[in-house]
Target: peroxidase
Amino acid sequence: MALGQSTRVGFYLRTCPRVESIVHATVKKHFQSNPTVAPGLLRMHFHDCFVHGCDGSILIDGSSTEKSAGPNLLLRGFDVIDDAKSQLENACPGVVSCADILALAARDAVVLTNGPTWLVPTGRRDGRVSSASDTDNLPAFTDSIDVQKQKFAAKGLNTQDLVTLVGKHHNFTSK
Model:
């Protein structure tokens, strides 16, 4: 989460009480027509959080933004977030951040694949800065285990976090 933000479960209880059900229904609709959207949403959330702390900056369009950077070109699920945002703007205009939509959608994607559920603290503010060069710190499949450990340590994460988050997706070498 971006510095200076405080989140809590139920942040939108008074201002947009249906936020979680709207996001869930949207993710479910897309998942039913294309199940590969589930890992795509989880990966997108991971990339967003790793770069600027879950601020939604990965969702900003532009030629030199995180979204257009090499590591993010194959991410799936942007259409799901856009769909949920559109529905939420109709239900409660200007209230729910894109960063929160992405966090909720990632959780719902896990649940729809028979994974665990959890409460998602909300109240994030959307980032307004997004630079392609910021994705240089994302774990790359070509990185050695030592480089991966360094990238995770720089974010306050440990080796167990590394294995949990990217271990199954990388073919580590000991360069």
In short: Residues 19-138 form a domain with the Peroxidase; domain 1 fold (CATH 1.10.520.10). The mean pLDDT is 90.
